[in-house]
């Protein structure tokens, strides 16, 4: 029986995609982890010759009614990893996420092997501190960046902020930081230069509040030792559209210029979303 027939995914009995459309590749699902009732991550095989810069996203998805249904997903694994990792929200009526959340080991997904994105080192001018501002599943591209040795070659310190409503929604970020600190090879590269600032907006914790408030009222400076400094700091932002605009305005007010792949700047944002 088709493993995901209830949601109309075009899979064979083995969970394999019957016909891979032109321009796509099929990836085998290697693991699935449900972090909360609204978020999950999964790893897949990596196509031979598939290259990407840490922080980029790719179009991934499933075959639905004989056609590829794909959305932009940040690649959460670093560019040196032999596997690809993705971190996703669950949307009950989302055309794609309502199906992806039912993935199991042995199933397959589609990927268009042409990664793109602005949350990459090439879009930033040189600086001393790299500040990664994220909310929710917006931490995904930063999970790639903080595990990339190149990040620590370019910056003296990396500050990863992650804001969610409740404490358990921060677990994925804690796991990524744990890997950086405990992996034998990666820990030598990071060398204690990764600072993790998780905050909540609804559940009462020791670190509550939106990061824009932290930046405005001095808590960010107290936690990191220095306020946002345009001359030395470079910023990457990923989250909801409202969050992006709010942080973008704060960066511009501080005198920072937005960067891109063609014209590097002081801060960058990512506008690709999944449903």
Question: What would your notes on this structure say?
Answer:
The protein is α/β, with parallel strands linked by helices. The chain has helices at 97-100, 140-145, 149-154, 171-182, 184-190, 211-217, 219-224, 241-253; strands spanning 25-34, 39-45, 57-64, 67-74, 83-89, 108-116, 129-135, 157-164, 194-200, 233-238, 267-269. The protein has 2 domains: 5-116, Translation factors (Elongation Factor Tu (Ef-tu), domain 3, Beta Barrel); 121-269, Nucleotide-binding domain of ferredoxin-NADP reductase (FNR) module (Rossmann fold), CATH 3.40.50. It is built from 8 helices and 11 strands. The strands form 2 sheets. The chain has a 6-stranded antiparallel sheet. Helix 4 (171-182) packs across helix 5. The chain is globular and about 55 Å long. It starts with 24 loop residues before the first strand and ends in a 6-residue tail after the last strand. Mean pLDDT is 92; it is low at 1-14.
Task: Sum this structure up briefly.
This protein is α/β, with parallel strands linked by helices. The protein has 8 helices and 11 strands. 22% of the residues lie in helices and 29% in strands.
